[in-house]
Each structure stands twice: as structure tokens, then as C-alpha cells.
Amino acid sequence: MVVARKKKPAVKKKSLGISKKSEKNAAPSAPLVAAKQRIVVTPWRDTQEFNATYDWLFAKGSTPANRRQALSQMRIWSLRRGNLCPAAVLATSVLVQAQLEDKMGNPSIQTTYANAFTRFYNFMSSIIQGHNMSSMYETAKELGLQSFIVDLRHLCAHGQELPPVSVLRNTSKHCLEWLRTYYWVRHKEYMVNLVSGKLQRNDKLKFEKEITRLLEIYDLSLECQLQGAQKLKDISKLKSSAEFNKIRVYASNKKVKTAKEILNAVLGELNVLIKKNSHAMKDLLDIYLSCLLKMKYFLTVGLNIKDNEDEIVAATQELFRLLAMQGFIEKFFTALVQMNENANEADEKRLGAGYWALKMIETFTMLSRMKRMYKEELDLNPNLKPVNFSSLNTNVLPNTLKRLLVHSGVDSSVTLVFGDNPKKARNWIFDFDFIRQRIRPFSKFSGAIVKGLLSLTDPPLDEQQIEDLTRLCNIRLQEQDSVKPKKVKKLPNPNYSLNDLQNLVASSNNEGNNGIISTEGSDYGIWKLDNEHDWSTCALGVVP
Q1: How many other β-carbons are positioned within 10 Å of the β-carbon of residue 370?
Q2: Averaged over 11-18, what is the pLDDT?
Q3: Alpha-carbon distance 236 to 248, whole Å?
Q4: What distance in Å separates the CA atoms of residue 77 and residue 70, rounded to the nearest whole number?
Q5: Which run of H or E residues covers position 85?
């Protein structure tokens, strides 16, 4: 990646015939404007690679071997960027290839030159014709090519007889020199390297700024809602002047008056913002999730529960429904679990993330139970009306879903009620790989999450296995709570058949590896791991 810098505007020289008087009264010239820079993603790794290719092509002592090397490098560039490879590079490669075949005595060199010349013009005209429909002569004039190039291209593409080889040979030399001055020299002089690690795209910065602003308003309004400060007058007494001013300005812009209305307005804006950036959400999803986890009040609100958990659920339910509708509920759950397991996070944040992860596990369990009941009813009555579980993300539920919700065995007043993504329904179960990843960072913070996931495994565990593994988790938690941990005795119970989960209580030889699995001594047959080179720094076609 490089920064291509625009040339400085040329400074007009003073006329030799100007008189001293007029020179004295002349207006002062405007100061020079600094050259602007723009960021360009290029197929070459750095300026050194580009300059080496330039020397192979155009240096005075360049040999056919050098030009073949340059041709190979340009083919690598074409592979790296595909149809985004610069047209001038592709045009250069076809002419150089024809000249090399001419050197080797190709008997059909006339046809080779004609095809190369036609492709050269097509490549270069695509730069202009991609923006407007113009004639070939106008295109050539805009590019700075002589009109005879267009005539020669017509003869090569449509003429009954091809131009003589000498004409094609001389024209190819002329076009290569034109490419050198038109494209290669300019890039060689005005490119500088850019470290991609220090670069953040403007769209990411803009998205992060907007998401942060909205979630800050949401977090402040959520606190006001749960503290009983609904109207702006009450909010002004609860919040500082700076925080109140943010809420007041937002409420004025959205024409809302209460904390609940502000929460709904923020969620509406979030929904619009995500839909607007849906084409790039794979790149922006990490920003979205990290901003959600930066909400201070939201993250820790569950740690100070008295008798108002129903109010917390009612106030935050629409946020989880929005995430479910957007299809990010599973990613958000994983992010909460990872924060809960992260020993570098503050204990308050880990406990807060654990609270919300457990609330979501309750919902996953409820959804799995509802879908299982619906399947059993459907097996007995094939004429049963189809149910769309994404309807749980709304306040208007069909009668079948209402009945399933009642019989799910949960208290809906203290349970988050959300459903599937409308575009992609799924079963809320987790494979053993996900649970294996929870074993090594097992702690007093994450123990409850592991126990909650045992009923959501695929393949499912029976009741006895869940009971035994829950007991194993409790033993591990008691170990960590004690001042002097004791070694855990192996329990001779035949139900401990899941070796992966036995590591919850067994002493692991890899506990000191900080989560890194050693690969030394691994058998890969004829292959072996190369740990000597950092391959992530090597571009395609480049070895360390």
C-alpha cells in the first residue's frame, strides 16, 4: 500500500517584457499549496518492488532476462489485484511480451504484435471510457496519444491486411516510451510507502463515532429510566450538566420527552445505521460489539439487583430484540463470554458480562424448549399453523407462540424474550468445540456460564451426565475459593465419559501455557510447521 501524491501546481514565470513599474504594482502571488496525498491500494508490496520492476523494464543496461523478470513480476501483480490491476501495467506487459517473442524469432510475430497493440489500446481506453462515452479519437487525445495510434489499431483489429512488422515494431517502442513517461515515471517519483497497520479507514472511523454517540445516549437514558427519572426535569437533577445537555439536545432533535422514548429513538437510529452499512458489516461488526460492551451502566446494571430485575429486563429487552433481528445475538453472546473469561478485565466488568451471558443462556434454553414442544405438536398434528419464531422480537405474538411461551417454564417478566433472525432461523445449541474453549479459562467468573451451557450441547447430554458434570464444575469452583487448593481426586464414576470436560477438575499440564497449545512433537507426516518465518509479512509471490 502506498500514498500517491499529486504534483504541485506549476508556477508561472515572470514575463521578460514586464516593466519595473508594473512589476512593483503587481499583486503578490498566492502562496504555493502543499501537494495533496491520497491513499491507493497497489498490487506491488512497496515502492522498492515497483522501482525494481521499473529498472528491469527501462534501465539502459536492461537485458531480455531482466525484462522477463519484470514480466513475471507484473503477472504476480495481476494475480494479486485481478481486474483492479492498473491498466497501464497490463498494457505494458502485453507489449513487452510481444517484444520478447520478437527477439526469440517468433514466425507469427506480425499477428502477435497486432494482438498486443490492440490490447494495449483497449487497456488504456478503458480508463477514459469507464467514465464517459467518447469516440476513439477523443479518447486518444485525452490520453495524450497521437491519432495515428487509433488508425493503426483499426487496421490491426478490422483491416484485411495487417500493417508491416517494422511499423508494428516501431509503434510498440513508441507506446512503451509513452507508457514510461505517462505512467511509470510519475508513480516512481511521487509514491511513498504507507504502513497499513497505522491506517484506519474513514468509513470505520465515521461508523465508530456514530455508534459511540448513540450508545452513549442509550446508556445515559437507561440509567435515567431505571432510576425513575423519566422527564427531562427529573433527568436534570440526576445527571451532570454535561450529560444532561447531551440527552436534552438529542431529545430536542428527535422531538421526544421521556427516557423511554429516547431509548426507542436510539434503537431506531441503530437499526437504520446498521442497515445502511449492511454491505460492510463483516468489517464493522467488531466495532459494533466493542462499542456495546463499553456501555458502563448497561454492563454493570445487573450487579445491583434488589427487587427490580423485571424493570431491568423490560428496559433492555428491545436492545436484545434488535440484535436478534440484525442477526448478531450469537456474536454478542460470544463477546460477553470472552469478556467474562478475560483475566485482564476489571472484576466488575467480568461479573457484569457474566450476568448478561447467563440471562441470554436462560433465553436460549427457553427457545430450545419452545421449539422442541412445537415439533412434538407438529408431529401429532401436521395441520398445525406454521410458527415464525422471529415474531418473538415483537410485542405482538401469535396465539401458538403465546401458548408455547407460557408452557416454556420461565417467568417472562424476568427473562429476556427474543427470537430468531428473520432471514436465518437456528437451533440455540452449542457444539463441544465451543465448550472445550471454555475449559481452560474456567474460573469463579465463568463457572456458572459453563454449567448453563451443559443443557445446550450438541449432541445433547442426558440428565445424569449434566448432573455429574455440574458437580465437577462445583468442585472446581470450591477449589478456587479455598485458600490452599487441594488436588482433586478422580471420581470412579462411569458417567465421566467426556474426556474433554474432565479437564474441568483434572490437573492440566498445559495450564501454564496461557491458552497456547504446544505443537512441538506433532506428527504431520511429510509436512512440518515452519516457525522460523513470519509469513504474514510476505505478499503473494514473495518469500522471506
Answers
A1: 23
A2: 38
A3: 9
A4: 11
A5: none
| Separation CA 193–CA 5 (nearest Å) | 11
User: Which H or E element spans position 261?
Assistant: helix 259-276
Q: What is the dihedral of CA 139, 141, 144, 148, to 10 degrees?
A: 100
- Please name the residues in contact with 284: beta carbons below 8 A apart, sequence gap of 6 or more: 203, 204, 207, 277
Query: What is the value of pTM for the model shown?
Result: 0.60
- Alpha carbon distance 359, 354 (integer Å): 9
Q: 119 is written with which cell numbers?
A: 490490447
Q: What grid cell was written down for 40?
A: 491507493
Q: Which of 271, 230, 232 is nearest to 248 (CA)?
A: 232
Q: Are 304 and 351 in contact (CB under 8 A)?
A: no
C-alpha dihedral sign at 369, 373, 374, 379: positive
Residue indicated by cell numbers 451451557: 453
Run of H or E including 386 = none
Instruction: Give residue-wise pLDDT tens across range 150-190.
Output: 777 777 877 677 888 888 888 889 889 989 998 999 999 88
Strand partners, 3: 39, 192
Per-residue pLDDT reduced to its tens digit, 202-259? 778 889 999 999 999 999 999 999 999 999 999 999 999 999 999 999 999 999 999 9
Domain extents in the chain: 38-193, 200-292, 431-511
Distance from C-alpha of 293 to C-alpha of 369, rounded to nearest angstrom: 29
Measured torsion, CA atoms of residues 281, 441, 474, 410, in degrees rounded to the nearest 10: 0
Question: Is residue 231 classed as helix, strand or coil in its secondary structure?
Answer: strand
